[in-house]
Automatic annotation (TrEMBL):
Spermidine binds at residue 92. It is found in: Periplasm. It comes from Listeria grandensis FSL F6-0971. This is Family 1 extracellular solute-binding protein. GO terms for molecular function: polyamine binding. Keywords: Periplasm, Signal, Transport.
Length: 357
């Protein structure tokens, strides 16, 4: 009997030790509360000095983790095994998270710095009234090209991508919404179209571009364009800004027919443990001085109207990344098309990629 009691005691002790270890690991992976704030963001998407500044001003310790896709971020939050107090999803992901009850409504009384945000970037379709999110960065989808390699094309239109002299020169971003969207835009249609005839017309036109497509890739676009490995690419403005810093021969344009206007916004996930700290952090990042510092460090456009005035003139006046309101009129945010239509977009994009082979 004593042996059984001893064994039972050892089992209980081992179990308690495992629980303590699990708690410790979970805490390091995102469990928060009290005096800790866990932030889930894209990689290299904040000035680290701002995290230190927030810790010093608030007395709250920051745990910072990163993701590389909206889908990965949503899956981890939906599973609920890891707690995050702040996340920074993109527009369409916010719409999905809202529908799936994964977000906590914001307490606007705790966000006085929201007054500095540009009204043009508020109350958009993916979060009407900004009930769940506050803008963090924004940008566009456009064309980047090498002026030295391709000298005779002005690149003002998506239709320039179909020019025969661009054979085997174009890098396309590996995204169904982006590629189908440019196909739709080139025909004068909305990039959120659900009209089957328009979608099929866009697919057929994209197939005609096939001889010009060198590759359909992701992050490799930055390396290939910076290294003069391709003449043209379709990419996001923030990525383009990095490429321009690396290669003086590159230029970025927003096609005249229109394009995607994207947003990454700050939200508070449903599983947050430090909701008050989350509001403090959002308000901290909406401070014009902090928003300007972050924009200058990251290279993406800030939606903070007061922050733009604090940026160096060469940045704030660059219409490639801070286009005027007339240019913005032709830009569209990706709507949440629903699982069925999104799957259809993916099918059409896959057909395009298979057609290339």
């Amino acid at each position: 009997m004593k042996s059984l009691v001893r064994v039972f005691g050892l089992v209980v002790i081992a179990a308690l030790l495992m629980m303590a270890l699990t708690f410790s690991l979970n805490k390091s992976e995102g469990y928060s509360g009290g005096n800790t704030l866990t932030i889930y963001n894209w990689g290299d998407y904040i000035d680290p000095d701002l995290l230190k500044k927030f810790e010093k001003e608030s007395g709250i310790k920051v745990i910072y983790q990163t993701f590389d896709s909206n889908e990965a971020m949503m899956t981890k939050i939906e599973q609920g095994g890891t707690t995050f107090d702040i996340a920074v999803p993109s527009d369409y992901a916010i719409s999905k998270m809202r529908e799936e009850n994964l977000l906590i409504p914001l307490d606007k009384s705790k966000l006085p710095n929201k007054k500095y945000l540009n009204p043009r970037f508020m109350n958009l379709s993916f979060d009407e009234g900004n009930k769940y999110s506050m803008p963090y960065f924004w940008g566009t989808l456009g064309i980047i090209y090498n002026k030295k390699m391709i000298q005779d094309i002005p690149f003002t239109s998506w239709n320039d991508l179909w020019r025969p002299e661009l054979k085997n020169q174009i890098l396309l971003i590996d995204g169904a919404r982006e590629v189908m969207g440019l196909g739709l835009n080139s025909l004068g249609y909305s990039l959120n179209s659900t009209n089957e005839a328009q979608l099929q017309e866009a697919l057929m036109k994209l197939k005609e571009m096939t001889p010009n497509v060198k590759a359909i890739v992701g992050d490799e676009i930055k390396i290939l364009m910076a290294g003069d490995e391709a003449g043209v690419a379709v990419t996001f403005s923030g990525e383009a800004a990095e490429m321009l810093d690396q290669n003086e021969n590159l230029e970025y344009v927003i096609p005249k027919e229109g394009s995607n206007l994207w947003f990454d916004n700050m939200v508070i996930p449903k599983t947050a443990k430090n909701v008050d700290g989350a509001h403090k952090f959002i308000n901290f990042m909406l401070n014009p001085a902090n928003a300007a510092q972050n924009a200058e460090y990251v290279g993406y456009a800030t939606p903070n109207e007061a922050a733009v005035k604090l940026l160096p003139k060469e940045i704030a006046s660059d219409e490639r990344f801070y286009p005027d309101l007339d240019q913005l009129k032709n830009l569209e945010v990706y709507d949440n098309l629903g699982k069925k239509m999104l799957a259809h977009y993916n099918e059409l994009f896959l057909e395009f990629k298979m057609y290339r082979k």
